[in-house]
Amino acid sequence: MASAPNAAQALAEYEQIYQPKVFNVKGSRWTNWGYVLIGCSTVIMAMQAAGLGPAEIWKRADDVTTVLFTFELLFRIYELEYEFFVGEERNWNFFDTLVVAISIASMAISAWAAQDASGKGGNSLAMNKMKVLRALRLLRLFRIFRALKSVEKVNQCVETLLTGLVKVFVGFVTVVALSALLLTMGVAAFAGGKAWLREHALPTMPQID
């Protein structure tokens, strides 16, 4: 029972003595740089949605912001270490990780769909990928919430959202694990039965006169 307070005390002491390895990710300059990235990304997505300017330029700019967001996230993990996962801002850190994962998936699907469209002249599969891409881009708008994290209601909404996502994720992992276990048992039973039948013969039914 005493381990939880001890862990909380140890974390509090770690936060107080946090020493930047390369750059202070808790400082205002790093925070402001993150807000600039969010603002640029929002403008780029708005320009893409409105169809203003060359689409290829906005796509390249969008990919650049995705790479920068990924670098920002990985650098924070490197600087904060385990505090990234258990500190006071762990919900926001998980939220950022989710949005970055969505951005990377969006970039990958965009490249995949463009390759299919150019190679096959545009088919239904490529169109389906573009629909998924548009849905993912809408989810990326959640980045804006990062700039509003000082608002208490926004914090509450994000915490509620993340709590629900964690429950869904745990349930999904549980279902996948159980399905994999049952599938493994079924395959093992089938393979074992097949191997047994190679060496043995099933008993024949007695004939009744």
Question: Which features characterize this protein?
Answer:
0% strand, Four Helix Bundle (Hemerythrin (Met), subunit A), transmembrane helix, Ion_trans_dom, 209 residues, 78% helix, membrane, mainly alpha, extended, voltage-gated sodium channel activity
What does this structure look like?
The chain contains seven helices and no strands. The N and C termini lie far apart (75 Å). The protein has 209 residues and is mainly alpha-helical. Helix 2 packs antiparallel against helix 3 (55-80), helix 3 (55-80) runs antiparallel to helix 5 and helix 5 (90-120) runs antiparallel to helix 6. 78% of the residues lie in helices and 0% in strands. The protein has helices spanning 3-16, 28-50, 55-80, 83-86, 90-120, 124-139, 152-199. The mean pLDDT is 79.
CATH architecture of the domain at 21-147: Up-down Bundle
CATH fold description of the domain at 21-147 = Four Helix Bundle (Hemerythrin (Met), subunit A)
Query: Total strand count, please?
Result: 0
Q: What percent of the residues sit in helical stretches (DSSP H or I)?
A: over 70%
Give the ordered list of helices and strands. Answer: HHHHHHH
Radius of gyration: 26 Å
